[in-house]
Amino acid sequence: MWLLFLFLFASLAATGDGNRDNGGRVYVVYMGAVPPRSSPDLLRESHFRLVETVLKRGQKAETVIVQQYKHGFSGFAARLSKDEAASLRTRHGVVSVFADPVYQLHTTRSWDFLQQTAIKIDSKSKAAATSPATDTIIGLLDSGIWPESPSFDDSGFGPVPSRWKGICMTGDDFNSSNCNRKLIGARYYDISEVRGPADGSNSPRDRAGHGTHTSSTAAGNAVAGASYYGLAPGTAKGGSATSRVAMYRVCSEAGCAGSAILAGFDDAIADGVDIISVSLGASPYFRPDFSDDPIAIGSFHAVAKGVTVVCSAGNSGPEAATVVNAAPWILTVGATTIGRNFESDVVLGGNNSAVKGGAINFSNLDKSPKYPLITGAAAKSSSVSDSDSASHCEPGTLDSNKIKGKIVVCNHSDGDTSKIDKVDILNSAGAVGSILVNNAEVAVATAYLDFPVTEVSCAAAAAIHKYIASNSQPVATITPTTTVTEYKPAPVVAYFSSRGPSAQTGNLLKPDIAAPGVNILASWIPTSSLPVGQKQPSQFNLVSGTSMACPHVAGVAATVKAWNPTWSPGAIRSAIMTTATELNNDRAPMTTDSGSVATPYDYGAGQVHPTAALDPGLVYEIGEDAYLQFLCNYGYNASKIKLITYIPSGFSCAANASKDLISNLNYPSISVVGLSKTGSRTVTRAVTNVGALEEATYTVTVSTPAGLNVKVTPSKLEFTNTVKKLAFQVNFSIRNMAAKSTLSGSITWSDGKHMVRSPFVVTS
Ligand SMILES: *[C@@H]1O[C@H](CO)[C@@H](O)[C@H](O)[C@H]1NC(C)=O
Ligand SMILES: *[C@@H]1O[C@H](CO)[C@@H](O)[C@H](O)[C@H]1NC(C)=O
Ligand SMILES: *[C@@H]1O[C@H](CO)[C@@H](O)[C@H](O)[C@H]1NC(C)=O
Ligand SMILES: *[C@@H]1O[C@H](CO)[C@@H](O)[C@H](O)[C@H]1NC(C)=O
Ligand SMILES: *[C@@H]1O[C@H](CO)[C@@H](O)[C@H](O)[C@H]1NC(C)=O
Ligand SMILES: *[C@@H]1O[C@H](CO)[C@@H](O)[C@H](O)[C@H]1NC(C)=O
Ligand SMILES: CC(=O)N[C@H]1CO[C@H](CO)[C@@H](O)[C@@H]1O
């Protein structure tokens, strides 16, 4: 746990703590929607005038402003002293002033630099067969892009849509020739506050790999013959291969500046993207209010303009209440495994029995078990008293004479040292290989390249320990990595995927949906660390994280939008959520990494179903007014909301506004916290018929957990050519619910053809 705090501290420290350059740190000054009858030039001037009112006499606004927001919303980022920032906070028109935060990319364990993945979008889908989707534009806020990747080749693409207003910025090793009819736009922003010394390029060009991977996952062309050095062979293809891509580089490998994230949203809205995909976020231990969170702010204004925003849920699972990017206008995505595994087994001496493990390596050990086997505990250095640290192979705890020439078994449960660091130390001490014992992370294949390593579960490790204990000279080997497909069960919620409930709004269920995010194969930047015997860097990489899940859903959203161009972001989200599946490839309920049946706190509505989402039957519409009422219930007063956006005439916060009423937001899922306060609660919802038939009759079925009564009224909805939208109520009451317990179930409307399913969660 202390490590996490250290990490947080480092993140905050990286933003600078004042007294740098001209005496301040960067603050974001957020001023809400662009006022009516304004223009970017007028806003620019008004920002300058505003900031000059707090500067010392003679100091020019130009010297302190680092970023201006004047298209999708109004505001700026400036280098200010604490007093200047405080003074701006009280000015007319200012919603919030906050220190520029540093957010992180949502790949797992950034130090485990190479990991894996594979994109599986139903190839027989309606979308793949005849897609009208060529004019959908997906914008990504990320670490940049590698334009030479075959994923972004534009052969076969028609002209850039005429409504596109974006640009291709020139930067280091990047100019307008790098954009084409596929990669139609690229911008970058000042991220000097978070940039490491080795990452000094001012350019849309990706130096981290992450942005290239997410872009190709969202919208990459189908590239046949893709693999990671022969592993996971097949065709790599984005979720919406016919969409166009626009990259907004707001991150370096070290992190993403909040001031740049806002600039990316501001430009993406003005450029004309349809979908924004954001695979990054705040640490779950740093919980900014919506009005202090660049992602919540930017996405609010994007959604108000009809742009769907899809974000990763974070990689801080499996602990509860770790989900981030949980504002109700965002589509929040958790990660699941795919039906593929990278198997590398341990063969034990004696009877040659094999113990299943998984990892990626490219070295060569003999096939026969002839390498001496030792545990970390047995190899403990005599100067170390703590055998627990030695069993975890922590740095400095092992006697290198005892491990030389041997395969070392290390516990890797929850150590402070990363897998890659641990393995590096064993390698340099002369070990021939390593077996890491680790229940949680076995599904996430780590690439160790030249050093033979495999990872086994605790259960599998028991057989190894038993063998060692019963032999005076135990020996083993590690077998080559093979790709196992149709692995069961899959999908499984990934251990790292951040979980609900949302710490900010318990009465709003988050995450919303899950998608593949473990060992995903997609395009990558050329790397200099090649496995032995390889001459060319792989154009693809296997990577894990909710970062990888998010662009899968962005691709699906782009396809839904292409098929239904008039749908709002709320309708698109509803279609994706109500058609999700809860079943795995054994036709059994999906489980989590620990083997328990997944709940909506793990995966929201379930696993995204790309084809079903195109024809949901009914949708839960949600207009901007509903988001304003949400903000009232969340605790903002009308004067604050008025600063954020225009309030339609007649709008006011209801006198009875309360967090409990957040449950009434017309969301495709339902969350009710604290039911035991009153014993029963009724929430309202309304559905709109978007099916092909105007005359449709839907009836409800409820999957009710023991301990709860759930009554839906009415239980039948009849749509006609004049009745498109119908409301219903759901009454939850306690039958027999223990204190501090959580129950979940679902409500499904069906006309015999469509199944419109909404998960619910109720806490006592
Ligand atoms: C972009 O850079 C490439 C390589 O340096 C060069 O060949 C090309 O002419 C440049 N294009 C433009 C439009 O400047
Ligand atoms: C690994 O270490 C953890 C504690 O860090 C312990 O609970 C577990 O039993 C150990 N596993 C084995 C196989 O020794
Ligand atoms: C092989 O040996 C292992 C441990 O040494 C033992 O658990 C297993 O049952 C043996 N298998 C067979 C087929 O004898
Ligand atoms: C609205 O809330 C803000 C704080 O968010 C407070 O400063 C202000 O006084 C409130 N206004 C009214 C009219 O209550
Ligand atoms: C809250 O007040 C509104 C009117 O402003 C009313 O329609 C609604 O029923 C009230 N809700 C509750 C739960 O009392
Ligand atoms: C909800 O159901 C409970 C139990 O049947 C009942 O006591 C309560 O009055 C109902 N609430 C509403 C608003 O209908
Ligand atoms: C020791 C070991 O397992 N080596 C294997 C690592 O993976 C490569 C490629 O899959 C094999 O060729 C090695 O034998």
TrEMBL record:
The keyword Protease applies. GO terms for molecular function: serine-type endopeptidase activity. Residues 664-762 form the Subtilisin-like protease fibronectin type-III domain. It comes from the Eukaryota. One of its GO terms (biological process) is proteolysis. Pfam families: fn3_6, Inhibitor_I9, PA, Peptidase_S8. Keywords: Hydrolase, Protease, Serine protease, Signal. Residues 389-461 form the PA domain. SUPFAM superfamilies: Subtilisin-like. Residues 26-106 form the Inhibitor I9 domain. The active site is at residues 142, 210, 547. Residues 1-18 form the signal peptide. Residues 135-592 form the Peptidase S8/S53 domain. Residues 195-218 are annotated as: Disordered. Belongs to the peptidase S8 family. This is Uncharacterized protein.
